[in-house]
Amino acid sequence: MESGLELLREQALERIRGAAGLEDLEAVRVEVLGRKGVLNSISRDFGKFGPEDRARAGKLLNTAKQAVESALDARKAEFESAALAARLESEWVDLTLPAPGVRPGSPHPVTIIQAEIEDLFTSMGFTVLSGPEVETEYNNFDALNIPPDHPARDMQDTFWLEDGHLLRTHTSPVQVRGMKRLGPPLRMIAPGRVFRNEEVDPSHEHTFYQLEGMMVDREVSVANLIYYMKTLLAGIFRRDVTVRLRPGYFPFVEPGFELDVQCLLCGGGGCPVCKQSGWLELLPCGLVHPNVLRMGGIDPERWMGFAFGLGLTRLAMMRYQIDDIRLLQGGDLRFLGQF
Ligand code: DAH
User: Fold this and answer.
1) What range defines the domain where residue 114 resides?
2) Residue 214 CA, closest ligand 1 atom number
3) Rounded to two decimals, what is the model's pTM?
4) Which ligand 1 atom minimizes the distance to the CA of 194?
5) Domain count across the chain
6) Is any ligand 1 atom within 6 A of the Cβ of residue 168?
7) CA distance linking residue 339 with residue 312, whole number of Å
8) Residue 309 beta carbon below 6 angstroms from any ligand 1 atom
9) What residue owns the CA closest to ligand 1's atom 13?
10) Does residue 42 surpass a pLDDT of 90?
């Protein structure tokens, strides 16, 4: 019995020494020390021994078990410290190296211009409002004096939603919300994203930005309108600009105008940017139609107003001389990082 035990012990220690890793060790542990392991199965023979021999055999068995156990523990510790050393080696970090640079973001060109115009108008007492991009047909068309069969609805190719709502085709519906929310007198601007079902090309996008403006007071004239528009353009272009008004048709204003700026590149002489005309068409505007005031809950006998709709995207393209509108929404960091 003694020599058998000795042999088992030696074999076990030999296998522990040769184990390739923690899994191997575990296999040895189960095979040798487990409940059905080889050492325990030996103790089954102890029943045949007399009491003295049995006690001695028990002792020997325990010593063997302890030897195997401590060999397993020692080998396990070896594996663990080798694994730790390998990890420390592979995850080693030189804390004295300079950190990789953090690349700062930059505001989008439309955001830059929008923020400047917001600053300018809030300094003149205007409130900045926003409205939802998903609008009702009523706010986008009806309340702006555009009747159901009016050709102006075809002018703006609309994305319709299945439930009858639409993606707003302009920021003008925020006029309607603004009149109801603020009541007269009021001064508001509403920058925002608008959508049209357009074929996309270098100068057309299905998604772009506008900034709506509206002022309602007792006496509001075309002279006031021109004053604010000139202030707006001088603020954006940082110089005095020459403007002219042409008649323009929009159902929500009467009279309606197209406000043109003398071309900032050629000074009016004619160049490719202004298509040789010397003028840039920039700002549709006018005096608010009485029907629009009425539908906004304002009495047109007592109040009057002006409104304008600035193409923010177009303005950004002019300011930064961007020749393809698709760059603005393209998400290319090489483009966006320049601003
Ligand atoms: N909503 C018009 C458009 O998107 C632009 C516009 C024209 C807005 C005249 C106005 C305005 O407030 O008075 O085409």
Assistant:
1) 109-336
2) 12
3) 0.70
4) 4
5) 2
6) no
7) 16
8) yes
9) 285
10) no
